[in-house]
What does this fold into?
Amino acid sequence: MALHWFSPVVPVRTDRPGVRFRVSHVEGAAEQLLKWTKRGPKWTFAVRVCMAAMSDELPAQDARKAFEEAAKEEKMFLTHG
It folds into this structure.
């Protein structure tokens, strides 16, 4: 299975204090989303967009944007990657 890359990366927090993750593809975004305990409306939308992008129904950049918005909503987004 080929990865669906996007750019620029989206820096997010992890469940380990002080550890960050630089998400650079749709599959990584989906993996991170599933680890989050808070799941608001933007999280739900991002999961749907990631699934569509992995099925080549939407561009990877759409998933990147949705993932970043979900990360901001859940306070997982880091401004410095």
